[in-house]
Structure formats: structure tokens, C-alpha cells
Batch of 2 targets.
Target 1
Amino acid sequence: MKYLTIDTTTKVTAVALGEDRRLVGEGFLNTTKTHSERIIPMLDQLLTAADWTLQELDMIGVVRGPGSFTGIRIGIATAQGLAQVLKLPLISVVSLDALAWAGKGRMEDVVPILDARKNEWYTARYNWTRGAEKADCLTPPQAMPIDKWLEYLKGLDRSICFVGDAAEKAKGRIEEVLGERAVILPEYISLPRGAYAVSAVWQRWQETGEGEQVEPYYIRFSEAEVNWAKKEEARRSEGHE
């Protein structure tokens, strides 16, 4: 089975081609350009390099969040458009689940951390049992205040392997709280990669065997939605005065 995966949940644009469980090729860009400017040219170059065509694909996979609200929408819209035109099943995975693959084979708990702004991280906690084909999710995805999450992890009294776009930025803060129990992988391993999406999408396909209706996974409301809710609440309050 040949398939394409798309991950635009962070500032990184990551596209990849997979065949069954095998990674065929991946594109990775971490620049100032927007996803909408990068994704189609990257896809064209990747298909050309692999000597594949869109018509050869059997499935489309997309990472649906949490992460950047705009990035999530761009990735899903692109994947849905391709799936509709090519009449292919669409499979989605959670960004934190995909990032857990960065720590496959490690003995420590693997904790992806994505910048959620407002002094919070999108995060979860996983563990790879020796020889396992999928990580166990020990703490489900959530948006957590940074200090609260670090104090919780400190209380577990075990080594933690951090991955994700917030890991390198928060290295000093993490090491201050966890000390030598903190393992922070370098960015070339830690940032979202097409290879991780391929592994997660293939695992998901093995579990379901069919396409699905994909919805964004935001965890919390966007700033625009919060402001709209506040205005609506104020409007209703004024109407009752």
C-alpha cells in the first residue's frame, strides 16, 4: 500500500511517502514561509524524487492536531482535497502520538511538548515497552501550564525524554526542575518528521483498515473563539439588563 502523509501542526512542514510500514521519502522544511506556500511544491518534489504519481497512492494520512490552529486547518484541507479528488481513504493521527515515535526504543518515558502559547504546552506521556510496535499512552493529550506539568513529571521520580518544538527552547527550564532525569533530544530528532507520521498512520491503518471523517483536534478553543464567546456572553448580559 502506497500513501502520503501531511503534518503541518507546527512551524515545520513535513510530508512523506510510505509503502506499508516502510518510509520511502520525506520532506522537511522549518522556514519562515507559510505552509500554504511550501506544501504543494514539497509534495511535487517528493513524488518526482520517488518516481511516484498521485494516481499510485492508496491512502492519504494527515496529522490533525493539537498544534497551530492555522496549520492544522491547512493540513487537513489539503489532505481532504487530495483524498476527494483521488477518491482515496483518509486516515488521521494525533500530533503527540506521532511524536512519540521519536522516542521508540528508549527506556525513559517519552513526553512530547508543543508550544501552546499562554505559558502552556500541548503534551502527553508515553512509554515504549521493549519490543512493542506501539507506545503505551500513560497520560492522554492535554494543554497544561508549563510549571504544573514539570512539577508533575518531577514527582514521578523517573527519567523523562522530551521531544517536540518546545523541547530545545525550554531546555534550561526543564533541566532546572528535573536535573539529570531530563533527556532532551536534538532538534533533528525532536521536531515533527514525516517518518513519525508514516509510522503513526500505518499503525492507525492496521487498527482500522478503513478511512474516516477527519476533524481538527484543537484540545482548547482558539483565541478568536474565546473572544467571540466573551462578546456573546457580554451581549446576552446586556440584553437581560
Target 2
Amino acid sequence: MTRIVAGEVGGRTLKVPPRGTRPTSERVREALFSRLEHQGAVDGARVLDLYAGSGALGLEALSRGAERADLVERSRAAAQVVAANIRTTGFGDRARVHTTDVRTYLLSRSGETMLGGDVDLVLADPPYDIGDQELAEVLDLLAAWIGPEALVVVERSTRSPEPQWPGHLVLEDRRTWGETAVWSASPAPGAGPA
């Protein structure tokens, strides 16, 4: 069972896709969001949840005060679960699910998001089968999407190597909770879209 940990709809149960996803555990979400809230990264944020799975990360952000969230998931079945979870949480006016590949989504907007402005918080929890090079490309494409004060959070297995950070992002922090490693990066000073 997966549920929203805290905030406006804390305790609300979320559906999980039947296969192909690995939802972030409640323990990890609680620790991660406690840290993000302490940093002031959630309240009023415009969020981009990449590889959304069940949508638990983006919906947790909304429950804790994020302004809007775009959730990107390539699996049609998983995207339908995300849409159902958006309805269950009542965040239909603040969340949108996009059924497409993450790279395609980032390339298709040319820096123009559905949020109507810069993204403040990126939550990326790619499947284990996403290669390091593909993740590096996705991180590079974020240059056109994120604002100068944004935070990019990448969740992986502790057995995965550190992401290859593009020049526009600087590693700020690395945390581990059990088998989960979480890296946080922010825009390099003076960085932005080419």
C-alpha cells in the first residue's frame, strides 16, 4: 500500500501500477520531503515529476504545499493510475499527467512548460533500466526548464553510480536511506539555456 505521508491529504491511499514501477517507500518520501521542506523547496513550488510511476512524489509535493505539478510517465497503464491518483487526492486543478517518454516531453516544449513559468523542483526517479547516458541527457535537457533557484532531485539504487551532472547543474547533497540513494543538485551560477 502506498499513501501520501503528510500535508493537505496526508494518509490518502494511492493506487500503484500493477507492474513496471518501483514506488518510493513512505520512509524515503518522509525523509526526503522533510529535508526539502526544511530547505524551503516545496511550498509554492512548480514541480516536474519525471518517471512518475504512481505519481507519489509529485502528489506528495502538492499535499505539502507545492503550487502545481506536471507528472510525466511513458507507460499508458501507469499514467492512468497517476490520473486516478490525481482525482483521488483532489488535485485535478493543480496537477497534469503527460503520457510520454521523459526525453520526448522535455524536447517537445522547447523550454515552455505546462506550468506557465520556470520549474522550481524536479523529482526524477527513473527505472533501474534507464542507462547512465540517458539520465545524463535528461539532466542536460532540464537547462531550459528550471529557474535559477531550482532544485533537481534524482533517486536511484545505492548500487547505481552518481548521475553524470551536466555543466549547468552542481551537486549539493547526497543522502542514502536503506537501498535508496538521493542526489540533489542546483543550477550552477550563471547557468541557463544556451
